[in-house]
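Objective 1b: paired records.
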Amino acid sequence: MESYGSTGLEGLLQKPYTVKIGEYIGSGWELFKKNAGPFIGFTILVALINIVLAKINQSASPVGSLISMLISGPLNAGFLIVAFKLLRDRATSFGDFFRGFNYYLPLFLVSLVSGVLIGLGFILLIIPGIYLAVAYTFALPFVLEKKMNFWDAMELSRKLISKNWFAFFGFLLVLGLINIAGALVFGLGLLITIPLSVGALAAAYADIVGLPPATTDL
């Protein structure tokens, strides 16, 4: 994996930024409109996979949980990969949603390790869990876009977001409320709100971190 570089890291952490909630959500909506059909199709596919895995778990088998743990990081990264390509005005295909598996190990480790740490934080005092859940928001994007290893990506995300943690918390809270509203419409609204939310997060990353011209398949 490539290193982001000490100079770039120092510059990124020193640069001030603001969290533009309305602007990011607007960008997320525009990204969704550019690719609505594939976004909806992939959201349905991910939902069906989760339903099947839940059914397996109901049979008292740990297989469903194990499979979910193994594929959730790379699978969910598909939304970000497509969002990044759209932000760069690049053509997309449905296969792009599965390119997260090209970065399987670091994405799996980010999902696993951050999930464990967040879970421990909730078990201990709740507040540390909330802090980490927000602070690790950019961990997956750093692995995908900067080709960082899982721990460096988690730490860079934590340090960067901690500079403006409460604003990020408010941003994620708004996205959560949008998805709750989507779920209330017989769950069908989630077909729009989930891709919109990921698009908003991608837009936030592009604004705060920067999104240079692609040098890879992203």
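Objective 1b, second protein:
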Amino acid sequence: MVIFPTHSDSAPSTPIGVVLYTPEIPPNTGNIARTCAATGTKLHLIEPLGFKLSDRHLKRAGLDYWDAVDLTCHRDWQTFLDQTQPQRIICFSAHAQVSYRNFCYQPGDWLLFGSETQGLPLEIRENHPQVVIPTYTTVRSLNLAVSVGIGLYEALGQLKALQ
């Protein structure tokens, strides 16, 4: 089910999609929505969400760009798979061994990010390629919105979608 109006036909559409698996923090999702609006990237949310889509912090983080977000919400992982039939899903995970920079992205890829506190379940990660955004200190991982920005722009850069 589409939550917000889809972006206009005149907006560019990228060959990559972003999926958030059970996101918990409204400002993160709002910032990610804004990044997706800026790049013409489809955004899919997998429930349960840790907030209501009417949350004021979610709306504020997305500013006035919500009309430009092509956003779909799915009641669970299987519903997402059934409705989108993705070609390939790339899991961003702190458990991965391959750097996001050393991965070869392809048109039709879906970049999958887990919740802020739980990440992605093993049963999802083990069935798809995994990449990591390395940290260089004892910090376990980066903020979700930052991670999506880094991963999305790397994939788009490789595909030369934003020139």
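Confidence is low (pLDDT under 50) at residues 1-11. Helices lie at 26-39, 56-62, 77-84, 122-125, 144-159.
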